Amino acid sequence: MADDKIYRKMKNKFSRLTLIFAILGLLIASWFLVHILAVLGIFLAVAYPLWWLFAPEKTICFLCRAEKEGAKCPFCHREIKKNEGVSPRSLSSAILNGVLILVFSTISFGVVFGESQLLFKLGFPPTPKTASFVIPPKGQYRLGEIFPMKIEINNIKNPINALQADIGFEPQKLEVVDISTNDSFANIFIQKEINNEGGWARLTGGLPNPGFFANSGTFGTVFFKGKAPGLVKIEFLPSSLVLANDGRGTNILKDLPSASYLILPEKISTEEEEQQKKLISQTSVLGESTNSAQMKFYDEGSVLGTTVGKEIQEQKKFSISKILLTGLEKIDRFSLGLLEKLLSIFRKTP
Question: For labelling, which of 2, 102, 120, 151 has a CA lying 20 to 30 Å from the CA of 217?
Answer without folding.
Answer: 120
